[in-house]
Structures are given as structure tokens and as C-alpha cells.
């Protein structure tokens, strides 16, 4: 089983001609509200990929509909608490080039107590996976708890903050990073080449498996001296919001199914390529059947 300690947000998405500039008032030409949060997106992607995932999260009581979306997709929501606090939410701009800018309010996602973490970890089994991102508080306490309990930790340090550098990252079995996150962890600049980032990551985290996603440059997997590359598919992006979460959910589902790493990379990359061709975050995550058809198309 994989347990995802992750954020659940309400996404307020505005389509704009360009990302708003300082001092500018900009009219949007579309607006919608949907399920979001890196945690919820990754759980949803994993469930759509056929994986078994239990989400650990908190949501304002008035927004139970968001929990229902996860449940209908096949996510175990028995540890999603409805609380008397505002839900986390995000203000998302998506421009005509499919770039995005996001303002995040954590809300209920920041309400976990040490006792909550103890209870959640105690209910897991030796060898289970714990997946988490950087949108919930308590990671500094959760990592040692989970590792000492025998869980395998997969971490996506998004959004990247200075607090990530204080975490015991060596306790992680697997880390997912994009270019910005890899640069933040290693101290390199974001314009460093992919292999330079990987070299620095293996120095920083020598015993940790690393997946580095580079958009149009594809994705890399590294464990020690082993390094694999998956080229990106050539597609026309409509909205890149949630593409990384789709990649992670599909990768973890494939890993759970005990597929080889190259197959995990391929499935995750194809799923992410399908996601960027659709608007939205949770709404853009493809179903397993769509990914299977795309894989067959790539192989033919």
C-alpha cells in the first residue's frame, strides 16, 4: 500500500493572455473551481493509473465534495479528516502559452499535530510506501517517524522552500525533482544541464533514488552509478498545471506494480504528456486506458 500525506486544495483557475505583472489589473477570459493540491493530484493520478493509495489529508467540512471526487476515483479516503477550518486553496493563472503562476493558501493542510502523525504512521505496515510533498506541515517529524517504522519514503519537494534543506532527506528512498527543485537542493543554478544536476544530486543523496523531470528534455532516473533517460513526447501544451503530479502518480503506480524502472519512466512520461494537452490540474489527469493506447501508439 502507498500512503500519501498530501495537500487537498480548491483550485481557482483563471485563463489570462499573459501572467499578471506588478501593478497590473488583468481581465481573465475563463474561470473555474476544481479539486487541486499536489497531494490530491498525485493520489488521483495514482488511482487512475490502477494503483492502491490511501490519502492522509485535511479538508474544510464545507468542501466534502472534494473528498468525494477522490473516493469515486478509487482513493482510500478513510484518513481524510473534515475539519472546522478553511480548506487550502490556490489562485492559478494560466496564460496563452500554457505557463502558470500560483498563489497558495495552506488552510487546513497546515493543521496536522504530532499526535496525528503518530496515529497515521502506527496504522501502516512494514515496507509500505509513504509519498509526500511540501504543502503540509510536519515533514521534519514525519520523516523520522516513518523511516523508523519501516516505511519507504518518496518525496516531492514542491513547492521548493528553504525548509526543504533542513529536512533529513537521506531518509528518503526516492526523490522526485524538477529543474528548480534539483537546483535548490544542490546549490546549482536552474540553468545547469540535466546531467550536471544529476551529478550533484548523487553527491548530495548518494543512497537515494532520484527522478529528475525536465519538461521537453525528458526525464531521468538515477540510483548510484545507474542512470536512465526517457525522452519527452512532442506535444502541444495547453496547460502544464498538474503535469508533474500526473507523472509522479503514474510512476508510483507502475513501481507498485513491480514494473522495471524504464517502464515506470515511460508510462509516467506519456501520462504527463497527455495531461498537458488538457486544461486544469485534477481534470487533466488521463485514465489508464488513455495511457495504454498512447503506449501502444508509441510502440507501433
Task: Note down, in words, how this protein is organized.
- A nine-stranded mixed sheet has the order 5-4-1-8-9-10-11-12-13, with helices on both faces.
- α1 (38-48) packs across α7 (243-256), α7 packs antiparallel against α8 and α8 (261-275) crosses α9 (288-299).
- The chain is globular and about 50 Å long.
- Helices cover 33% and strands 26% of the residues.
- The chain is an alpha/beta fold and 300 residues long.
- The protein is built from nine helices and 13 strands.
- A hairpin with a 5-residue loop joins β6 and β7.
- The chain has helices spanning 38-48, 64-73, 114-122, 139-148, 179-186, 194-204, 243-256, 261-275, 288-299; strands spanning 2-5, 9-15, 30-36, 53-60, 76-83, 88-94, 100-105, 129-133, 152-156, 174-178, 209-213, 219-223, 226-230.
Summarize the structure.
The chain is of the alpha/beta class and about 300 residues long.
Structural class: alpha/beta
Report the C-alpha radius of gyration, rounded.
18 Å
What is the overall shape?
globular
Strand content: 25-35%
User: H/E order of the elements?
Assistant: EEEHEHEEEHEHEEHHEEEHHH
Q: What spatial order of strands do you see in the largest sheet?
A: 5-4-1-8-9-10-11-12-13
Uncertain runs are none
Nearest-integer average pLDDT: 94
Q: Please, how many helices?
A: 9
Helix content: 25-40%
Main pleated-sheet profile: 9 strands, mixed
Number of distinct beta strands: 13
N- to C-terminal distance: 33 Å
Amino acid at each position: 500500500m502507498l500512503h500519501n500525506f498530501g495537500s487537498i486544495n480548491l483550485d481557482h483557475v483563471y485563463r489570462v493572455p499573459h501572467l499578471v505583472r506588478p501593478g497590473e489589473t488583468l481581465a481573465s477570459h475563463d474561470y473555474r473551481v476544481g479539486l487541486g493540491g499536489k497531494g490530491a493530484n498525485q493520489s488521483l493520478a495514482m488511482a487512475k493509473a490502477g494503483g492502491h493509495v490511501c490519502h492522509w489529508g485535511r479538508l474544510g467540512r464545507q468542501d466534502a465534495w472534494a473528498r468525494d471526487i477522490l473516493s469515486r476515483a478509487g482513493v482510500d479516503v478513510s484518513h481524510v479528516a473534515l475539519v472546522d477550518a478553511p480548506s487550502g486553496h490556490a489562485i492559478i493563472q494560466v496564460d496563452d502559452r500554457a505557463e502558470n503562476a500560483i498563489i497558495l493558501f495552506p488552510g487546513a493542510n497546515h493543521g496536522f499535530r504530532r499526535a496525528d502523525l503518530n496515529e497515521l504512521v502506527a496504522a501502516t505496515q512494514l515496507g509500505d510506501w509513504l509519498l509526500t510533498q511540501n504543502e503540509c506541515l510536519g515533514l521534519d517529524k514525519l520523516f523520522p517517524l516513518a523511516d523508523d517504522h519501516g516505511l519507504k519514503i518518496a518525496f516531492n519537494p514542491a513547492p521548493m522552500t528553504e525548509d526543504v534543506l533542513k529536512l533529513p532527506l537521506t531518509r528518503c528512498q526516492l526523490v522526485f525533482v524538477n529543474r528548480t527543485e534539483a537546483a535548490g537542493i544542490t546549490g546549482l543554478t536552474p540553468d545547469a544541464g540535466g546531467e550536471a544536476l544529476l551529478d550533484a544530486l548523487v553527491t548530495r543523496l548518494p543512497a537515494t533514488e532520484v527522478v529528475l523531470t525536465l519538461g521537453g528534455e525528458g526525464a531521468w532516473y538515477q540510483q548510484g552509478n545507474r542512470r536512465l533517460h526517457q525522452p519527452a513526447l512532442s506535444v502541444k501544451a495547453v496547460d502544464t498545471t498538474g503535469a508533474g503530479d500526473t507523472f509522479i502518480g503514474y510512476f508510483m503506480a507502475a513501481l507498485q506494480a513491480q514494473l522495471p524502472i524504464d517502464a515506470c519512466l515511460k508510462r509516467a512520461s506519456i501520462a504527463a504528456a497527455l495531461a498537458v494537452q488538457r486544461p486544469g490540474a485534477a481534470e487533466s489527469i488521463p485514465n489508464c486506458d488513455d495511457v495504454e493506447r498512447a503506449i501502444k501508439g508509441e510502440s507501433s
